[in-house]
Each structure stands twice: as C-alpha cells, then as structure tokens.
Write a structure and sequence with these properties.
The complex is a heterodimer of chains A (112) and B (110). Chain A has no helices and eleven strands. Chain A has strands spanning 4-7, 10-13, 19-25, 31-37, 44-51, 54-57, 64-66, 76-78, 87-94, 101-103, 107-111. In chain A, strand 9 and strand 10 (101-103) form a beta hairpin. Chain A is globular and about 40 Å long. The model of chain A has no long low-confidence stretch (mean pLDDT 92). In chain B, the strands form two sheets. In chain B, strands 2, 4, 5, 9, 10 and 11 form a six-stranded mixed β-sheet that branches. Chain B has a five-stranded antiparallel β-sheet with strand order 1-3-8-7-6, with no helix packed on it. With 110 residues, chain B is an all-beta fold. In chain B, 34% of the residues are buried. Classes of the chains: A mainly beta (112), B mainly beta (110). At the A-B interface, strand 10 of A face strand 4, strand 5, strand 9 and strand 10 of B.
C-alpha cells in the first residue's frame, strides 16, 4: 500500500537528549513536511523539503534539524535546544506542490 | 502571518442530528481551502479541496461550501453517526503558504 509511515507512535525521552523521529513515504512525492501540533493550536510547520538534499525552515524551526538524503525519507531531530519538545509531530508529503498533502499517523513525543 | 480559525473548538451531538462548523481564512492571495477528517490514532484524510468562490462539494452525508470573498467555509454533516466522530481540520493555501486551523472536535453520541 502507498502511504506515509512514522515511527515510533509514542516516544519518551529525558530532557537534554536529542531524539530523531522517522518519516518514510512510498508515494514518490517530491515534497515532505514536518508539523507540530499542540493542544488548541493548528498544525505549525517546522521544516519542509521540496527536493532531495534541500530543505527550508518553517515557522518554528528553532531547536529542530532535518535531513533529506533520500526522496523517501525525511527524519526530524528534536535537539536539546528545543525548549518545549513535548508535542504531537505529523509528517506529510505532496506531489509537485504544497497543494494536496498526505499525512502520516504521527508521533507523540514526551520529554520529561 | 496568516490566521485560520475554526469554530467551535468542540461539539457534542446526538446520533441523527445535523451539524455544521466554520473555518475562516484570509481572503487575500487565496488559492485553495482544504478540509481534512482526522480520527484518533489515524492520519488526517483529505475530505474536500475547494478553490472557487461559491464552490460546494459533497461526499455522502458531508458537504462543504466556500466563500472566498469573505473568507469562510462551512462543513455540514447531515444525520450524524457515531463513526463521524473525529477532528475536522481546515487548511487555507494562500500564496503557496498552507496554514491549518486548530480543528473542530466532533463527538457523536449514540
């Protein structure tokens, strides 16, 4: 089946540790995105990538890093510099433009 | 910064009730309005994409309208069923910049 997978579903980390969230797609989409959701707020864009080996900061990129070495994969690292890392993280992909995005099931990260 | 607002934040209805909720979005440089249905523990799924003022889309018991001049869209559910329980997200695409609302969480009680 074509789609987007994110792993793990739940992730727990101690404060001060970096953690990497996985996102893989087999839709042959060029563009991939990372969003963060907090209670009562809309999805906020962290990073996006429109092509392999290129990515751009979104609205809330501070404390996060990404890589796009393969078309299928867009991992997100939440670094210790991110002040409030506990959140729900959604990955998405789209064809040639941002017009229609397909989402993964998300990863809930809890940092204590 | 674009602002997409959805209301109400949450809604509880009885099975069989019809319901509707609102998405307001910036009308300047508007390109498209998306509605997504997001069930707990699943991925958001696209319901509708609308681009033209006056657009109406329908899928079964769910329909949506679009007013781009005043910057709002309505989502209607006729005869709600428990399986309609989900969060309904809207997203506005303005100038190649997509912004999401916080969603309306619908709970349909049997």
């Amino acid at each position: 089946d074509g789609g987007i997978t994110q792993s793990p579903k739940y992730l727990f980390r101690k404060e001060g540790q970096n953690v990497t969230l996985s996102c893989e797609q087999n839709l042959n989409h060029d563009a991939m995105y990372w969003y963060r959701q907090d209670p009562g707020q809309g999805l906020r864009l962290i990073y996006y990538s429109q092509i392999v080996n290129d990515f751009q900061k979104g609205d809330i990129a501070e404390g996060y890093s990404v890589s796009r070495e393969k078309k299928e994969s867009f991992p997100l690292t939440v670094t210790s510099a991110q002040k409030n890392p506990t959140a729900f993280y959604l990955c998405a992909s789209s064809g040639f433009s941002v017009y229609e995005q397909y989402f993964g099931p998300g990863t809930r990260l809890t940092v204590t | 910064i674009l602002n997409v607002e959805q209301s109400p934040q949450s809604l509880h209805v009885q099975e069989g009730d019809s319901t509707n909720f609102t998405c307001s979005f910036p009308s300047s440089n508007f390109y498209a309005l998306h509605w997504y249905r997001w069930e707990t523990a699943k991925s958001p799924e696209a319901l509708f994409v609308m681009t033209l003022n006056g657009d109406e889309k329908k899928k079964g018991r769910i329909s949506a309208t679009l007013n781009t001049k005043e910057g709002y869209s309505y989502l209607y559910i006729k005869g709600s069923q428990p399986e309609d329980s989900a969060t309904y997200l809207c997203a506005s695409l303005n100038n190649n910049d997509m912004r999401f609302g916080a969603g309306t969480r619908l709970t349909v009680k049997p």
